[in-house]
Input
Amino acid sequence: MSKTRTGTTNRFVAYGWSLLLGLSAAGGMSAQDGAKPPARFVDHSLLIAPEYPCTWPSHPFPRFAIVHQRKIGPESAYNVDSLLIDGNTGTQLDVPPHSVARPDLKREKSGPLGLAYTDKIEAWQFGGEACVVDVRDLLDKAPKGVSPLVKPEHVTRFEQQHRKVRFGDVVLFRSDYSDTYYRPLPEGRRFIADILDRKAPGYPDPDPDCMELLGQRGVRALGTDSASMGPLPDLAEPTHYAGLKYGMIWTEGATNLRELPATGAFYCFLGPKHEGGPYGEGRAFSIVGGELPKRLIESCRNKRAVDLSPTLSSKLPLTSPGHGTGNHRQVYLKVDFLYAKYLDLWHHGHLMDAMAGTHLVPPAYALPDSNEPVGYEPDVRGWLEEYEKKYGRRGSSKMTTEKVPLAWTCGDARVIDVRGLIGTTKQRDWPASPEITAEHIQSYERTTRELRAGDVVIFRTGHTDKHLKPEPADTGMWLDPLAGKTEGWPAPGPDAIVYLKEKGIRCVATDAPDLGGVDPRRALMTYWALGSREMVGVEMLVNVDKIPATGAYFLFAAVKVRNCHGGPGRAIVLH
Output
């Protein structure tokens, strides 16, 4: 589909969407002499920040914005952010409805895949074995405003050197374009804007024949380190349709592909699950070395995956209404900005709290960025004094979302069922949440096996599966528990967090709205305990009951937004 607006933009603006994810960090144990190297995580995502060319630069595509709505101090114990972001921001994902029309439209390009939005793609398709097709010889080898074309022979050259590509592979076109040209503005205009203005050669991209070859090979996931998968000036839409009609999805704006071997690495893209999204922002990363990549590749190839994230929709209670009037978080809003007549859909972005849906809780969420005294309001000052007497210094942190290593939010899934705690509080004490204690975790360990460093602990409460519903059935999610009309969801107290840290756990997740619960004092202590021990949380999961008891690997990644104190993302399990 084209970004062109009839009568207003030239053919060089004939295209305009994209997205994907990543971040590098070491993982696994030290390699022994003669043993395979340990698994390590490689980030393939562009940093999203206002001074970078992270959005499509043509009118009327919106510019990215992060708003630090509340900072730790007298009015808030937390750093709270909201985002204005559209799916063409940073590393991004395209899915079939980007070019395939809905079947009910009965158009030449109509088909069932016109309904395969970002919230409908099955979790197994987001990952696979990376097959890196080296096309660096094409970089800048074209006239200004024109993309050098990746041809079928580039794929067959790869196949002659390695093996044939097939179903379960993620074919990645490596030109080093984003590594070379993704820079802060104004230098960053070279990334997209200078091409559209015919001041620089275009980014390398596959032509329709190359897409046809890959589609016939059974490949259903691609990636490019160019700004888009659409060659300029006039092959963007033909190339898109040639691949998307096969049910492909792909990453646009990947980076750091040089860190990958030609084959053998596990590649994955995870991004927020927007309702009706034909594309979306996200995070791309790979796992290289050791036995883990092979295990995850086989899971994807055999379609063994569980999606753990709810669909993001303005109809659902995705963000907290807060304790008391005026303390609510930014509600999730869809922002339409450009109508695509052929597809009968709107290009859209979102205004959203950084903790809408499944999201990351980084240390900097509840910790100030320095050890200077904080002017908390009186109640919070008292809670801090109480906390530090028992748990030690609260401390500070500059670890916002983009600084959290991906290895921290991925690992063997350990699901602890805490539904037995439901109904254990007394109504006179509401608002209150049943507290998950270290003893509950130890009881789980006695019946299974002890927790190990690198595991991801997931608390199964059943709350989100039961209560994430549209009006008028939406009050059970947040409103009633916070108001003390019903019991809150089970949540870990600071003692449980301290115990998990002693076991080497970095990431704690829940299928409840948050890890804090409905008592603001106890919640803040839990978040202080997480942050001060350099632990992170993943909140608001669904389908935790579908995670196998053994052999399940948890993967979560948040959008790589600079200085963000939350982080929307997607969680899946491969097994």
Summary: The chain has two domains: 11-54+89-303, 359-574. The first strand starts at residue 25 and ends at 26. The domain at 11-54+89-303 is CATH 3.50.30.50 (Glucose Oxidase; domain 1).
